[in-house]
Amino acid sequence: SGVILEETQRLQNHVEAILKVACPNGGDLEPEAIDFNELVEAVISTFRYRLEHTGAIIHFSPSQPSVIVNGERGPLTLAVSNLIDNALKYVCKTPEIFISTKIAHNMMVLKVRDNGIGIRKEDQELIFDRFFRVSTGDVHNVKGFGLGLTYVKKVTLQHNGTISVESVPEKGSTFTIKIPIAHDASQTKLHSRN
Question: What's the pTM?
Answer without folding.
Answer: 0.77
